[in-house]
Amino acid sequence: MKLNQFAFHQVSSEQLYQDLVNIKLLDESDKTLSSLKLFQKLIAGIFPEYHSLSSCLEALRYISVDSQHTLADIFNTEPFHLSRHQFIIMVLQLLKFEIGIDFQMDNAEAFYQDCGYPKLSFDQINDSETLLRAFYLLLNLRTKNGMNFLDDLANRGFFNSFFDAQAPHFVFFNNRVQAVFDASKTIREIVYVESDLDTDHDGKHDLLEATIFRPAATDRGLKVPTLYTANPYFKGTNDMTPSLHNVNQNLQPKKAQIIDKAEIQATHTLAYQPIGAKASEENHDTEISAQAETVYSLNDYFLSRGFASVYAAGIGTRHSDGLRTTGSQEETASTIAIIQWLHGDRIAYTNRTDHIPTTAWWCNGNVTMTGKSYLGTLATAAATTGVTGLKAIISESAISSWYDYYRDNGLVVAPEDCQGEDTDVLAIDTFSRLKDDADFQKIKAVYERQQQALTVGQDRDTGNYNTFWDERNYRNDVKHIQCAVLIVHGLNDWNVKLRNPEKLWRALRAAKIPAKIFLHQGQHIYMNNIRSIDFNDMVNYWLVDKLCHDQKNASDADLPKVLIQDNVTPEQWHHYQDWCAESAPIKQFYLQKNRLTTKPKPTETQSFIDNGTTDFLKHNQTEHQWQNALLSQTSEYQHNRLLFLTDPLTKDLYIDGNPIVTLQVAVDSTSGKLSVMLADYGIARRLQAQPSIVGRGALQLGFNNLTEDLKEFQLETHPSPFKLITKGHINMQNRRNTWSNDVIQPGNFYTVRFELQPTHYHLLTNHQLGLIVYSTDMGMTLRESRVQSYTLDLNASRLEIPYNK
Amino acid sequence: MKLNQFAFHQVSSEQLYQDLVNIKLLDESDKTLSSLKLFQKLIAGIFPEYHSLSSCLEALRYISVDSQHTLADIFNTEPFHLSRHQFIIMVLQLLKFEIGIDFQMDNAEAFYQDCGYPKLSFDQINDSETLLRAFYLLLNLRTKNGMNFLDDLANRGFFNSFFDAQAPHFVFFNNRVQAVFDASKTIREIVYVESDLDTDHDGKHDLLEATIFRPAATDRGLKVPTLYTANPYFKGTNDMTPSLHNVNQNLQPKKAQIIDKAEIQATHTLAYQPIGAKASEENHDTEISAQAETVYSLNDYFLSRGFASVYAAGIGTRHSDGLRTTGSQEETASTIAIIQWLHGDRIAYTNRTDHIPTTAWWCNGNVTMTGKSYLGTLATAAATTGVTGLKAIISESAISSWYDYYRDNGLVVAPEDCQGEDTDVLAIDTFSRLKDDADFQKIKAVYERQQQALTVGQDRDTGNYNTFWDERNYRNDVKHIQCAVLIVHGLNDWNVKLRNPEKLWRALRAAKIPAKIFLHQGQHIYMNNIRSIDFNDMVNYWLVDKLCHDQKNASDADLPKVLIQDNVTPEQWHHYQDWCAESAPIKQFYLQKNRLTTKPKPTETQSFIDNGTTDFLKHNQTEHQWQNALLSQTSEYQHNRLLFLTDPLTKDLYIDGNPIVTLQVAVDSTSGKLSVMLADYGIARRLQAQPSIVGRGALQLGFNNLTEDLKEFQLETHPSPFKLITKGHINMQNRRNTWSNDVIQPGNFYTVRFELQPTHYHLLTNHQLGLIVYSTDMGMTLRESRVQSYTLDLNASRLEIPYNK
């Protein structure tokens, strides 16, 4: 078991003592205590459940320090002495490991090291200086349940005496803000922010409901930073199944069109600066209470630590005005309106009718945005406006250009498990105003017109990049970003594909905007409950620097810039200087019949037939079953694809970046689509892309706060023969670019060169790299019912693999 | 969707008004209000989030009453009038159903009826009397999220003004206790109850840790009932995998022994009455705080409603004394010691060393026990002692005799998915003192002796019923039960098999002890989060009667005595007069070659070979895969069993009780075991035994309280060909009884007659009833490696099926 700690920061003796005073484990006056008295005070302090000496001593008697003694013996023995071995045995038990079960007493030190805990610099503890440093370390170590020990103490009531402080303040320890606030006292209320939009064309500015969760301490004068999550799903979703587009149809040939990118560039028609009124003075009243709700447990974690959470669902959601526009400028404007109110630059009202203003008087003006998927997408969108007050975004599994979510190289390509979805369908999903029929009937006509506009604009007929999509490409505006950026993404995310964070990362790098990126081995998930990584601590450390006044710290330097989870060894996280580096070396592969080689050799052509749809639909297979079949070496669909395999690798290959394929290809009709997969072939127990629960409800977010399941990525129980590395798709008519169409003459060969989705993949020695070329992707593309034949001229086909190490 | 309500009680107009005053929705003086003013007051009251008239009116404008009007129109229109149709449309939206999504406005009344809501007795509401009755009904109706509307209001803050009452009191509405207490203020503390036991032979009475969760209102003088859960897993469990017994072995012949039952009857050596000291006066101090923890959400639900929860893990668990004894008298005594303390009959201490007494001064002396499986088992055990203070038990999926958990008819028969487990293994699992090595080392020797005693006593060698098991048969003491009993069990529970509740039910009936039984279609699960049934409300209604002073109600008469979930139609719950009635009629079936017939006809013999173990182990199959294969009509294991099928049924058959098989059988060796299954053959989409989540976190247990997933049993997505109805096993040497062994001469025919596990099963017309006779049950019996041949004389074999209707 690894409990990596990236957020721990070595501090000076002075800072260390000050931190211990901050958390009231010691007083200033304790400096003069003898080592034993100091030890007794420290030990009594870390058993907050025991309110008498007798009961505390009983607790100490359960904790061994060696085979002969318990902590109670040490506690009562003058002169004070604790060996390094005894200390480790004690620490491991305090961190919830059990002797004889998790570790053997003899082997405690090795176990301690295997967990990845920091090295100890002492052999004995018998002076106060060493004792303080040892205890300080202990407070920072992560328990078996994932939280660090001080957080565990907080969960056990350590900070409860802070809860009702008359002059509440933040408490920092090792630069991180601590859980000294009572989450059960959170104040929950609703206000209506006035935007400058009128997306439902009723002649009135769209009012946007914002839901505020703020610590009760704000009522006693504390000004707090805000974690803001723009969440279109917050007010509920609708069933979009009946609205899904039919994907069981053939790809149509497109009219030839060679145009310049300038012709399809979107113009920004919206000024994002607030033009409406601001509230002139503080107003503390609200009229509407909100219900407790959990969206992202990172936000809940910070509630115990004094940061507010604010949620807004945006235009077109229940109890707000407007319509859903899926990624438009209006949506971005509605997203940042909330920040502008939090920062004091925009007005909000206590209800929707009476125009009684209310200010975010409790906010210190500093905001970060959080959330995954659509939520993270809006964080990215907001950042690209440069809105004042937004100091940081944690953008997880987020879209950076909607074209890269619903399209690929001139093709309609669905996110995994989302066949038939598109911007118009997502607008239905999130249009929660539908839930109040009385409200919906008032705007039905304008809603239907807006839906029609999305359907036309997204243009499923061509799949081309156009002005509609260019408006929805946030990367056009990376230069405006004024805040710190943390990107988080799963390397197995086939919902929001890796091109989204990759192109954003490249744009940030080009614009020299400071950013970090964490890539885990999951699919479309959060990573804050993964045991092997101290995500919450890292975010805490980083956000304190960004959001708290006078708390600048070294987190930008201390925390990894690029953190990538290993796909071979569980619980291993690598710290890199870059991802998808421009300077990455390229390994070139050539195609031979069913083979990938590193040296070219004249060879023949190879063909496949695209006719799998009938069988797929007849057998009622899932898209995952179909994909597994296609990847397998003896596939029922093997005539639907070509599989090119390298020889077993003689050394490990670390793929890093976008593989590029060049295919010289002919098809027997006037339209054609190509799909390509790269896969890792070799029998191995691979890391599962779904983390397993290793502690149900084990991650407690604070005293009186919620719990969350602790998870970890584990190896498969049984070995598997292959694993998808990456994928790509292209409309052969878009071989020039995504907005121009060239013609296809049946039987003519064309050079089609395109990037696959980027990745980082550790391919092991003795495994084989496989290139799979096919056409219909049952899970992502239109499903062809006609039978098409594709022929590859292998001589002119290539695969380029960027790599590192 | 069905939202059945069994707990709703029709009340008089006086009671109705009093209830509305109790919850402070109305005052006494409101009786004189005009209908419109009354309506306005009621409506304003049920929008507790809205603290101003403006914001409340906004909320009303979202709620349609017909296609032209909203609730805001009704609210403002004199004279007040609401049609029955308008009322239903309003009510459905308040209960969280959406127009155009869940129901159509035109069809509201039919939808209301389909949900199973009570019939409305009015066509118009325009007078105060009708209005009050209509609103009272609304407050009792269950929302889409499973809770009733008043609970939903409580979750939304309706009762928050009660939280800090100086003279706190229970609030009853429709006889149920309401959520007027702040769950986040729960006081959690630990005491040590002194038992009269010394199971670890250290010369001192075993101290038992008890963990108390009590409402803060107790500190302001409220005396409260207690839900006590005896939970051996409460302090953690150990890995029992290495201790599992090997089941891959052959059944050994047993020495002939014909004995009288009296020879193996256990004698009670323990007096359950407390002999130790009592604390003489109230002592309010405790020294140790406990952590929040959730074991059973029914307990958490009652925390908001003012009832305390108490947990104790019992002898041999972490921080208590003693050893684990799996079902012994000592375990029962340690279980009831907590009740004796709660009732004031036993002493407890504030810590383990100082002998400072502490009383349960906050308890009203009335206790109910709750919990599932081992937890429910201990509730049953406690009830059979007649301990004072225990007023009711809710015993779910519970063992009533440990022989019926680990044995069957002279065979070692494992609970499902528990092959190799036994009383000694379970004692290791729950022996959480192992977690503190310093504690464990002190008692290691005596622990090992105790484990040895369990291993010897359970006697896996013979599988016979003996004194050890007789001590662990709680049914011997049913006559001592002094409390109300509610049994809950899943009809698909193959962990704690149905014989356990059945034999207890029969014993209670014989002893004329008032009891109820609820049988759901699940496996080994709780049913309190199933949407189609108001379990929490029923328990609330029932416990108020049993535990609250001066609150006798009609729940015994109102609530079903026998409630059984239908296995064919989802969300259907039947109310019966009895289960396993002694007077049930019997349908007799005769065996022909591969056929079950209702008329006898001379016929031949049929044989099968028991040799499946090698294949089963070689193919690494799960026990479930094996069982499915065995049941299928074209089985890879078909030579391992005989399958007898009826003709397709010409009318539905409701099996109810214990089917009995009589087999005239010979085996080619000196030992033999028989297994039998009954199955329902016929292609159908059957109810799944695992309920699906229909609302993640939708069931909120109170304001500031936990949430739980709302679940429902749904039909299979695809039709299945068969389903197991019931099973049974016997050692052919135990054909006389479970404690005597007759010999087997190879090739000789013997009459073996035995009961299968009881059930209640609705077998549909056109389906076929199947009887499967086999020997080795891979999931439950020893797995034979020798090849045995069994022959049935069909002429003398029979199947008797008790049924009702």
What does this structure look like?
With 805 residues, chain A is α+β, with helices and mostly antiparallel strands. The first copy, chain A, has 3 domains: 13-177, no CATH class; 183-246 and 265-477, Rossmann fold; 586-688 and 717-802, Galactose-binding domain-like (Jelly Rolls, Sandwich). Chain A contains 20 helices and 33 strands. In chain A, the strands form 7 sheets. In chain A, strands 5, 6, 7, 8, 9, 10, 11, 12, 15, 16, 17 and 18 form a 12-stranded mixed beta sheet that branches. In chain A, strands 19, 20, 21, 23, 24, 29, 30, 32 and 33 form a 9-stranded antiparallel beta sheet that branches. Chain A has a 4-stranded antiparallel beta sheet with strand order 22-31-25-28, with no helix packed on it. In chain A, strand 3 (172-173) and strand 4 form a beta hairpin. In chain A, helix 1 (13-22) packs across helix 7 (128-140), helix 10 (329-342) packs across helix 11 and helix 13 runs antiparallel to helix 14 (437-458). The mean pLDDT of chain A is 96. Chains A and B meet through helix 3, strand 8 and helix 14 of A and helix 3, strand 8 and helix 14 of B.
Q: Specify the biggest β-sheet of chain A.
A: 12 strands, mixed
CATH architectural label of the largest domain in chain A: 3-Layer(aba) Sandwich
Q: Can you tell me the CATH superfamily of the largest domain in chain A?
A: Alpha/Beta hydrolase fold, catalytic domain
Classification by helices and strands of chain A? alpha+beta
Strand coverage percent of chain A = 15-25%
Low-confidence stretches of chain A are none
- The Cα radius of gyration of chain A reads 29 Å
